[in-house]
Amino acid sequence: MTQHPYDALMAHQFETEALAQIAGRLGWDQETMMPSGAGAQRAEEVGVLEAVLHARRIDPRMGEWLSAINDADLTEVEAAQMRHIRRSYARTVKLPEKLVIAQAKLASRAHGIWAEARETDDVDFFLPVLEEVIELKREEAAALADGGDLYDALLEEYEPGTTGDQIGAMFDRMRDRLVPLREKIIGSNTYIAPLAGHFPEDGQMTLARYVADRFGYDFRHGRLDKSVHPFSSGSGTDVRITTRVDEADPQNCVYSTIHEVGHGCYEQQIDPEFGMTPLGGGVSMGVHESQSRIYENQIGRSRAFTRWLYTRMRDIFGHAGAADAENFYRAVNRVHSGFIRTEADEVHYNLHIMLRFDLERDLIRGALEVADLEEAWNSRFTADFGGQVDKPSNGVLQDVHWAAGLFGYFPTYALGNVYAGCLNKALRQAVPDLDLPLSRGMTEDATDWLRDNVQVHGGLYQPRDLIARACGFDPSEEPLLDYLETKFGDIYGL
């Protein structure tokens, strides 16, 4: 009996999704457990697997099945599946197999080189392989763009329907309010002491697992490990997260964990019926980031939740690095012009993203050469943050993204903040007494609302449509900026 084209397509897609999960697991292993000398072999393994995946994604039968399917006959879920598959197929068939394999192998090799360069603060060791990465990304972008903007072609992979000009215009509007807010805070002369003391690694990891559990991360279907750069990997019943530890700064571990838990819970809470299909993952990186940022900031750094966290810190370490719960709250929200994006306060974070967005767009467009990248980074940092980068690991070498070829990814972090601001406004309207359970370490009212309004839908809706459905209004940067001005105006007495 002949199989219906839709059923045949979805059976093929199921196997492709399964292989993609295996590829993701190889990446997780490389970041967490792989022996340091295995990099060359892993690059070959990744290249072979990517060749198999690419062949499946451009299989001639895909085109035949897609042509035979009448979208008018499909259910809402089936139509959404087709939307994702058609978009992916249209992009993938433009990419030569040789390019895809070369990129996969290079990304694996470049990761090891980046990690070593970061460890030794040796920019010159990294720049040659970055040059190779960018050359291949430009080739990819040219194949995808059909004569259009190269950067937009890459951005489309992470945030469908969004252009660099739209992101740039949003950043200009945000900068107009963020910079004055930053200047008012600095000019307030209000000193907030950072957390102080020694916080042993074992205690931090204990607290990280405890906090992850409190936010609803399911350890039966996930695990928490350490890595140089915290990340989340996987979907469905196998979702893994990582964090990192600095024994002088427990915020690094705690809030990196909460951030990755937001990503992990999104993947764990997607409707199981969507598993191993295009709908079985987050719909875009901007929406994904909205979950990690609202978990980390609007919930995790709230005055209510930090009151509970302060007590847990004292239980584990015998102190919390601050005299009382209010000073602890102020310390974890302290505004300072630090070097590291992942450790940045909420006021400065988007300025870090704007820096990276402008530089990577210029790199892809050919307006900035790799040889000039470090100088461009350092000059821009001084202009935006008022200080000088002291070492490459605090500057151009701090992020793994460019080594991995993830050009177009960075702006979705700021877009995620914008979406989180909208979701926080809607959440507070839906659950006006949210602070009471948060002060007791009970996050369910918040996380359940996010699960029901965002996470369970997976890739069913378009990114902006999903946020609009959840919030009851079209997304914009205004709720985020209002939240920041209110919160930090209170903390700094503005």
TrEMBL record:
Q: What is this protein called?
A: Metal-dependent carboxypeptidase
Signal sequence range? none
The record ties this protein, via SUPFAM superfamilies, to:
Metalloproteases ('zincins'), catalytic domain
As its record notes, the protein acts as a catalyst of:
Release of a C-terminal amino acid with broad specificity, except for -Pro
Q: How is the cofactor bound?
A: Binds 1 zinc ion per subunit.
Pfam families per UniProt: Peptidase_M32
Record: residues binding Zn(2+): H259, H263, E289
* Keywords for this protein: Carboxypeptidase, Hydrolase, Metal-binding, Metalloprotease, Protease, Zinc
State its role: Broad specificity carboxypetidase that releases amino acids sequentially from the C-terminus, including neutral, aromatic, polar and basic residues.
Xref: CDD domains: M32_Taq
* One Gene Ontology molecular-function label: metallocarboxypeptidase activity
Example GO BP = proteolysis
Active site as annotated: E260 (proton donor/acceptor)
Query: Per the UniProt record, which EC number(s) apply here?
Result: 3.4.17.19
Look up the record and name the cofactor or cofactors this protein needs. Answer: Zn(2+)
**Family recorded in the similarity comment:** Belongs to the peptidase M32 family.
